[in-house]
# Entry
Amino acid sequence: MDFNMKKLASDAGIFFTRAVQFTEEKFGQAEKTELDAQFENLLARADSTKNWTEKILRQTEVLLQPNPKPCGFGCRLPAGARVEEFLYEKLDRKVPSRVTNGELLAQYMAEAASELGPTTPYGKTLIKVAEAEKRLGAAERDFIHTASIGFLTPLRTFLEGDWKTISKERRLLHNRRLDLDACKARLKKAKAAEAKATAEQELRVAQTEFDRQAEVTRLLLEGISSTHVNHLRCLHEFVESQTTYYAQCYRHMLDLQKQLGSSQGAIFPGTFVGTTEPASPPLSSTSPTTAAATMPGGPSVASLAPPGEAALRLEEVAPPASGTRKARVLYDYEAADSSELALLADELITVYSLPGMDPDWLIGERGNKKGKVPVTYLELLS
# Structure
């Protein structure tokens, strides 16, 4: 009992001494031991790494799970899924499989088609889009799972493991520095020889403990470089998983676009197949083939033509009596072969579609020249 009381009294005395030293430093009434410039740079680098890791982690969580958890009233709870994942993680339980937004949309579309009439044009289209959205949802699920394991988990591990260790040792170093400076202050105030000897002994002990703690903290701070290397590797893996995900989405939407394009002519005979809005810029300003090549696993624009279309004899092609339109070229396009028409940005050409032609392509005419042109490079004019 006496030992515990003495220890409590000693701890209280140390705490009081540190508080006095800290307060006097704040008011400029006591000297403060400064760390060297290299050490200060290591501290600033560690703080910056921690702050940006937190921001990147939070925003990546928003990207992967923006707001997917519906509440009982039909609204959406902010970050509901992320809170649920946090609770399951703290309880050391596996997070249950969750329906993605795409899969939920697919479910609604399929149910709408069933109720509105699956054999009607609208119902058939709803079913096709629902199937595509379901595939997109499955791809999203795989991407979220891969990114969570390969990218989010290492970031959390750093913040909840390494950074907590660094913070603990930094606090200990701060206390050792206060003890050291308090000993220096007592030595300055000591008058009697015996008091000076005692103060000098306490100072040597405090200096040794401070130097030891400074070395431990320095080693941990230098380990931030290894953290950067690890996060760099994880970042590469995140980009790879994101690239795979968007490539899968590209293929799924391309298939859907072709299905809808082939059915559009049957539903609306005589209409012009193609978009009337300015298309988004292609991935490259040279050719669709190069553009599509930047999407791993995605087919090139040139390969989208049906097997027999490449042998199209342009001299035998005549524009239809009705259905031709003017189009403004959005980007330069270099013809891949003699069946295509090279384009210059901002020029006007005449375009039209032929029966059975791939909906991503049109026949373009400029003067006495004609050839296939990609729809994505055109703005169709009324």
Strands lie at 325-329, 348-352, 361-366, 369-374, 378-380. Residues 270 and 351 are 14 Å apart (CA to CA).
